[in-house]
Amino acid sequence: MLLVFGTVWLWSLIPLAVKVADRSFSFGFIAFARLAMGTVVFGALELGAGRGIRIPRRLKGQTLRGPRWVGARAWVVIAGVGIGCDLLLYTLGLGYTTASAATLIVSTDGVILALLGVLVLRERMSWWKGMGAMVALVGLVLVGWNGQDLSALVKSEYFLGNLIVLAAGCCWAVYGLGQRVLVEMPGASLFPIFVVGTVLAGAAALGQPVAHGPIQWPAVVAVLYLGLGGTGLAYILLAKGIAKLEAATVGLIGSTLPLFTMGQAHLFLAEEITVYLAAGAALVMAGVALVMRHQRVYGESGG
User: Fold this and answer.
1) Mean pLDDT for the stretch of residues 105-112
2) What are phi and psi of 49, to 5 degrees?
3) pTM of the model
4) Which of 48, 109, 246, 260 has the fewest CB within 10 Å, making it most exposed?
């Protein structure tokens, strides 16, 4: 549990680090640097474990979940494009909204992944899962609205930022869908997926200057943290934690992430925690918890 809580804490600092890095660097460079450093860490981990770097292949006679016409390499590309677009959009969106709101919105990516699992992988949807998704959606509306007048809401930069972050959460769900399929195959690892994501982010970064202002050392430290701590180390700790805990337990612990981020954003970025934000946080976390808790039931029954 300490490993998973460590992962959650590392991830809770990501929005704050992005805010600091954004003071000097473009969003494309931040996303590219984060993915590139994470890819190096995952590659070194594979080589250090003696597994080598290879693309996962389907065993003879093995049937992949999802559409029959989508093969293993296609799922690697799908997952890679998902994680690449996720980090690009998330970094961009944070420039227009608060760290607290962004964390709450992307917390619904697990709910979106559950819905994609039903639509694409033909997984079962229970009433409890559906109820959890609806509760999280109501919380998402509260976070996006935040008590503003409707005319002001549409014009608000926070509204745009929240939409971009929501799109990022959808992209992460696509990554999660691909990862869910690939994990059943021999040789599955994060390395080839993150290579695709890095190439995508690198292409996006080429159209922007590396920096849009004076390069300050806090921004450099923030970028290093995003790649090595928030991506490389966090995923390693998560993998070790998952090996010792049920997936539902990991998911429930992960649903506490907004609490960490909201508290730290209030302390270090002076972000206001409104009644609407707090209520939305409670509903989002409750909805995610419902979905994850029932996910364990289906996992045990082989669904």
Assistant:
1) 74
2) -85, 0
3) 0.79
4) 48
Q: Among 238, 225, 279, which Cα is nearest to 14's? A: 225
With CA atoms as reference, report the closest residue to 162 among 146, 178, 181, 151.
Answer: 146
Query: Coil, strand, or helix at residue 25?
Result: strand
Residue 198 · residue 35 · CB < 8 Å = yes
Please indicate whether residue 58 or residue 27 has the higher confidence score (pLDDT). Answer: 27
Least confident of 2-6, 72-76, 212-216, 289-293: 289-293
Residue 118 has pLDDT above 80, yes or no: no
Using CB atoms within 10 A of its CB, is residue 112 exposed (0-12), middle (13-18) or buried (19+)?
A: buried
C-alpha distances in angstroms, 189 versus 59, 72, 198, 235? 16, 12, 15, 11
CA distance 211 to 63: 47
Are 108 and 136 in contact by the 8 Å Cβ rule? The answer is yes
Give CA–CA dist 5/300, Å, rounded.
Answer: 24
Structure tokens at 146: 């935040």
> How far is it, in rounded angstroms, from Cα 159 to Cα 152?
9
